[in-house]
Amino acid sequence: MNRFNRFERMLHWYPPHWRSKYAEGMAALLEDTYGTGRVPIKVRLSLVKTGSLERAREVGFIGSATSPHERERAGSLLVLCGWGAFMIAGAIFAKFTDNWGASQLGGANRTLITSLYDVVQWSGAAGVLVVLGAAILVLPSLLRMLRGGDWITVRRPLLGALVAGAIIAVSTAAIVIWAHFLSYRERNGTLAVYGYVVGAWSLMVSVAVGVVASAAVSVARRLDLPRRSVQWLSTMAVVLTSLMFVILAAMLAWWSIESVHAPVFMRNGIGNGLFYTSSEFPLALIAAALLMSAGLCAAIGGTVRVVRARRDGAYE
Amino acid sequence: MAKRTTSPVGGLERNNEPAVLILTSLASGEKHGYALSKDIEGFAGVALGPGTLYGAITRLEERGLIEPTPSDDRRQPYRITASGRAALSAALEQMRQLSEIGTSRLGARIATSRPTLGGATPGYSL
User: Fold this and answer.
1) CB-based contact, A45 to chain B, within 8 Å
2) CATH of domain B18-107
3) Which of A126, A163, B1, B21 lies at 20 to 30 Å from B70 by C-alpha?
4) Structure ipTM
5) Which residues of B are less than 8 Å from A30 in CB distance?
6) Cβ(A298)–Cβ(A89) below 8 Å
């Protein structure tokens, strides 16, 4: 194995544009420092961190090297990435609460918890509409780019997103057809194979959402968008962040009320589907809450970037 | 919370930043990554990791404070530009002022905190 290539391979966390300029010099530095010896794990982790930060800087997620217009666009894309995490979390929550109506709740609690669940659902649907609206808004620019021959620059992420979408569509259809022939009990725990397959499918969906979100970022940052469109997109991003906040708050409230007034649903695993519940803190809801929190943090970061970019005179 | 302010030249906000160390090293002549790393370790006792070093080099080059020099080797040398010298000069002047203020205040404090010799009760002499 070429020793120099060994060091260059460690730099794959850095963006291609950066690598074309600095990788050779940095690989030489690593070679001079470590020679044939082992590169310490601390240094490897540091390269992962600095490489990822360099990627985030290149996209415009951090730093002030780009123009306010670009930073506003990047802020909106960061919100979109946060929404990707919400989509995965939402799917987990939806599966977990498949049959939550079976929980024995009455009176005012029933009304309150139903309202909270509705808030989660309707806010989620509103979020999907906002994202679709954003996609429609950028469609003319995307078509212009594709017609202009610039699609070569986004060929890889676009193909990746299409392949990921196709795999998910086919595997989802297969699972739905299989589930159609299974009983309620088989779908909810007694048929282990089904649980494993659904688990693998969920992981695939998570990866696919990541691939699609990454492709969306790659494509959107190369689009020649008019300022007005970016302004609309960033406004949509702020709305989306608000919806994400509402969804997380309503989900947490639903969880706490359900835990207090209908713990049997949480403990007995009625409708838990993929994940077994053993307490008021089921793994599925913890995972969903953590993902939503991470997504909301990204979205808030994006919104702050949008607001600051506007303040810095994007539209003066 | 204290708000970070930007210095007037070159955006070298913090005096202990790798950027200042790199500019200081390059002030004595052009160097490549490894030479920079060793030089900084020698005069400042700071071991900059490869990621940190090249991150700072990237920012400095973007700001036009350093520039690569032609090289046939894989090791890419860099040199400080005129703007880089001005930025370093401003940062060092800022550090000098800070050092003077710190030293004078520390000196006053040392003087004020010195107990009176032989006194049974604690006291201070100015």
Assistant:
1) no
2) 1.10.10.10
3) B21
4) 0.73
5) 50
6) no
